[in-house]
Amino acid sequence: MADVLEGVSAGGVAAERDLRHAELLAFVAAHILPHESALRGWLARLGVKSGERDDIVQEVYCRLLRLDAVAHITEPRAYLFRSARNVVLEQARRNRVVSITTMQNIDELGMADSGPDPEAATSVRAELKRALGLIARLPERCRRVFEMRKIHGLSQMETARALHVSENIVEKETARGLSLVLRYLGEAGHVAD
User: Fold this and answer.
1) What is the mean pLDDT of the chain?
2) I want to staple 142 with a disulfide (CB 3.0 to 4.6 A). Which of 68, 91, 116, 138 is the partner?
3) Residue 68 in 3-state DSSP?
């Protein structure tokens, strides 16, 4: 008799799990999927590369599907963006060296987040401040070229025109700037082993 009751109970648990999973899938299909395109656009504007965007979106879906319930999600779009933001910040912390474009757009990460995560925001802001401090140490022309290329996103040609120098100089100063920033990071012990 006990075996029968355990079997019935186990079957009930499995049925409840299947029902919860079906509810999660329905929630994702109805409330999350319609915002995926906007999320991908937002990630692209942050400077996240195409392959990384796929990984971030996949990780967000995995996290959603591991939830026990979705009743607490009152703003699905905001929840989706906040989840992606958290994944981006986790990657930034793990990588220790983060693309300047992504760091430049870190304020946009904060705007998309309607929920609190002050520890992560503080950490990323500290990294941004450190990166900007390293860039400020570059020689004048190198710094100007590096900022225009890596922070403001100007093309090599646009930078050359704005500074009245050749594209060859822009290319060399950009490489020099990156090399110096990496050296400064290494001197400060910030480059991962």
Assistant:
1) 78
2) 138
3) coil
Q: Which residue has the tokens 């992560």?
A: 120
74 and 95 Cβ atoms separated by less than 8 Å: no
Q: Find tokens 């996240």 and name the residue.
A: 48
pLDDT in tens, 17-60: 777 777 888 888 888 888 999 899 888 888 888 888 898 999 99
Determine the Cα–Cα distance for residues 33 and 17; give it in Å rounded to an integer.
Answer: 22
Q: What is the pLDDT of residues 5-23, one digit of tens each?
A: 565 555 666 777 777 777 8
Contacts of 76 (CB under 8 A, 6+ apart): 27, 31, 32, 35
112 to 18, 60, 109, 118, 123: CA distances (angstroms):
33, 15, 5, 14, 17
Distance, CA of 111 to chain centre: 13
